[in-house]
Automatic annotation (TrEMBL):
Quaternary structure annotation from Swiss-Prot or TrEMBL: Monomer.
Domain Aminoacyl-tRNA synthetase class I anticodon-binding: 337-485
Job of this protein: Catalyzes the attachment of glutamate to tRNA(Glu) in a two-step reaction: glutamate is first activated by ATP to form Glu-AMP and then transferred to the acceptor end of tRNA(Glu).
Residues annotated as domain Glutamyl/glutaminyl-tRNA synthetase class Ib catalytic: 5-323
Family statement: Belongs to the class-I aminoacyl-tRNA synthetase family. Glutamate--tRNA ligase type 1 subfamily.
Organism listed in the record: Halanaerobium saccharolyticum subsp. saccharolyticum DSM 6643
Location(s), subcellular: Cytoplasm
One of the Pfam families matching this protein, by short name: tRNA-synt_1c
Keyword vocabulary terms for this entry: Aminoacyl-tRNA synthetase, ATP-binding, Cytoplasm, Ligase, Nucleotide-binding, Protein biosynthesis
UniProt-listed Enzyme Commission number(s): 6.1.1.17
Protein name (record): Glutamate--tRNA ligase
Amino acid sequence: MSNNIRLRFPPSPTGKIHIGNMRTALFNWLVTKQKDGELVLRIEDTDQARSTKEFEDIIIQEMEWLGLDADEGVGIGGDYGPYRQTERIDLYQEYADKLLESGYAYKCYCTKDELDEMRQKAIDNDEMPRYDGSCRNLSEEERKAYEAEGRKPVLRFKLPEEEREIIVEDLIRGNVSFSSSVLDDFIIFKSDGMPTYNFAVVIDDALMKISHVIRGEDHLSNTPKQILIYEALDFELPKFAHLPLILDENKAKLKKRGKDSVYIGEFREQGYLPEALFNFMALLGWSSGDEEEILSQAEIIERFDIEDVNKSGAVFDREKLNWMNGKYIRAANLDRIVELALPFLLESGLVDKEYIENNREWLSKVIDETRTGVDYLSQIPEEAELFLTEIEFAEPAEAAEEFKGDDVKLVFDTLKEKAFAREELTEETVGEIFKELKNELDVGGRTIYHPTRLAITGKGSGPEMTSVISIFGAEEVARRLDTALELAQNY
Ligand code: GLU
C-alpha cells in the first residue's frame, strides 16, 4: 500500500489487556480499514519489571479473537522492525546521542535523594515540583567527578529557554495548547539504559512512518513533550487524536487492574460473542449518528469517522452490552452457538462427552431454545438444566397435592393423547393443543397450566410451555406426566 496511512497500536504487556486498550486498538483498526492503511502492532516492553511474554501473548490472542488484525508488527514482521521496544535499544541510543550532540539533551547526575529534596523544597514554597536544571550546564570536570563517584547519569531533554506554547492539533479536540512552563527537563533515557516512554514512542512512530497517533486521553499531557522531541530531531509530526476515557457506571475512570477491571478474556470466557463486543466497543465514544445501535462490522467501518468521536468520557454500560450480546446470540448461526455453548454445559456437569456425542441434535434444540433467554452463553446451563435432568421436587408431598384429583388426571391424559396424535410438536401445534384443552375440557385454566408446568419442568414458573413441550416431544412429556400422576398416588 502506498497511500502512507499508517497507524499503530503499541500496548505495554504489563497486564491482561482490558477494554480501554482494546477500544484504542479497535479505533486504530477502523481508521486503517477505512482509509486502506496499515496497522502496526508494536510491543512497548521497556518496563522490564512488569512486562511479560504471557501478557504479550494475551494481547495477540484477544486481538485475534475480536478480528482486529494488524498488518505489521510483533508476530507478523514487516519492513520497520524489530517491533518490540527492548529489541530497539540501539536505535534509541543513536537518536539520544544525536540530541546530546545537538544540545537538546544533557546528562543529569542528580541522585534520588537530591531530587527528593528538590521536590520537597518546591512543595514547601508552594511551587510545582519540577527538575531545577542543576545539571544543565555541568563542566567536563564536574561530569568526570560525578562519574568517578560512580553516579550513573540519566539523560534529560532540555526545554526551550524561552517559555513557549506547544500546540497539539487533535483530530477530536481541535487545538490544545500547552505552555512549556508546565513542563520540566524530562528524562528520555533512564540510568538502567532504557529509554522512557515519551522518547521511545517518538523514535518508533517516526521511524515506522506512522501517520496517525490515536490513543487514550490519559496520554494527552505527554504529547507536548513528544512534540518537542519531534521538533528537535526534525521529524515530521503525525496527526494526533486522543480518545475519551472510559468511565464506569459511577462515572469514575474504569480500572485497569484489580477486581473491577475488565480484562477482554473475561468476556470470551463468559460467552460474549466477539462481534457483540466489537459493536459495543465501537460505540464507546462514537455513535453512528442515528438511533440504530446494532451495527455490523462493515457498517461501522463505513460510518466511523475519528473526527466524530466525543470529547467527553464514554460510560461502560454493562446492561447495554448484555442486551446487545443477547441480540447477537439469537441472530447467530445455531451450529456456531452450539459449539460455543457445549463447553459451558460440559463444565456445569449437566452433560458429559458421551452424552454430547449421542444427543447432539437434542442438545442443539435445547440450546436453540435456551439462547432466547440469555445475555451470555455461560448462562445457558442454568436455563438448560430443566431439559437435562430428572425432576426432583424439593417438597414431594406438596407437589403431589398439585397432581391429585380427577381434573388433573383428565388434563394430563388428554394432553398426552393429543400430543401423540400430532405428527410433529411445534410451538404452534402445542399452542393449538392447549386451546383445545381449554375449549373441550370443563376445567379451569389454572388446572390446565399449573400442574402441567410443574409436572414437566419441576417448577412453578419458567420458559414458555409451548416451547418446552415442543422440545421434549410427546414421549418425554408423557413420561413426565405419568411420573407426576404416580407421585400423586403414592402420597
Ligand atoms: N504503551 C503505551 C500505552 O499502552 C502507548 C501509548 C501510545 O499510544 O503512545 O499506554
